[in-house]
Amino acid sequence: MAANLAPQTALTDLCACLKGRVPAAIDWEGVLGLANRTLVTPALAEALATQKARIPDEAAGMLQVIAERTAARNRLMHDQLVEAVAALGSRGIRPILLKGAALLARRGPHCANRLLTDLDLMVPREQSDEAVQVLASIGYRPLGDAPASIGSKQGVDLGRESDVGGIDLHYRLKRSGGECDAEWLEAQCSPFALNDAVAAMPSRDALAALFVLHDQLQEGDYWRGRIDLRHLVDLAALAGEQGGLDGAALAAFFPPGRARRALAVQLDTLERWLDVRVSIDAGGAGGRTRVALQRWRRTLQLRRPGTETAFTLASWVIDPPLGLFEHRGVAARGREVRRMLLEKKATKV
Predict the structure, then answer these.
(1) By Cβ atoms counted within 10 A, which residue in 67, 94, 117, 168 is the most buried?
(2) Domain residues for 288?
(3) Residue 167 is part of a domain; what is its CATH number?
(4) Using an 8 Å Cβ cutoff, are 48 and 32 in contact?
């Protein structure tokens, strides 16, 4: 039983530390290992900055090194972001900052508490190919088998050998009940200066919605019962800013039904693990029951990871993902089934 409880125990202790509270009995090796895997070590270092007396020297030293390296990496990525926004702006393209790119811009070049793997930008579909050409003029090339233009796809991954991270260029975001494009999102943005360049910054609630949309619906965590702890920490930070998150405004980004329930589950997870409460209407008694069942499922799945596939299949039957059984060819359905059942992501728990 102890082995089965280990993932839940490590997550419980890690979340306590992320809230600035060091448990009396803690397995530092397990906590730091999970923090590294879920990419929250920089946030952990900041949260424990005033608790050094309660941290073993070796662990404290590791946290300091990670924070310093993250700060150095983010300075480079901030420079990269400013350069890309300026290049696009020179051609009349104002990109929307998404997810980590938005957080980095808000926190500035000295940000040391958030690890970024890439920079997500969004442009209008009609400007997508021109945006790829602009970024190509400053050295960016499609990564892997990515097309030279965006075409009919959601976006394209671009990179340069000299950079620490790439650029994910989007012109639409998959959304339950439809798709939101740059025009839809830009209405939720305001101009944001990056040196002499200007980008579009989503509102606090819109940015929070993007994290939930990405994890719960695009990556299927709603059905798979997984937690992206780094993005959960991001939501907690946004909720902790002056003014916090407006539950009603956040809910307005998600159509009633499946999408709204996915949001409710994410907010319940935020409260369960990081003690941050953002209230929304989950959809009456039925919605609250589904949220409670999802909390129970996630807890059991942490104890017994082998139950994930069975729970995922059951969740498909109860609340099927849009597109899995609707208006899709056999090959597309097969790819989606394999992705949601077999694709593993080490950064999630």
Answers:
(1) 168
(2) 203-349
(3) 3.30.460.40
(4) no
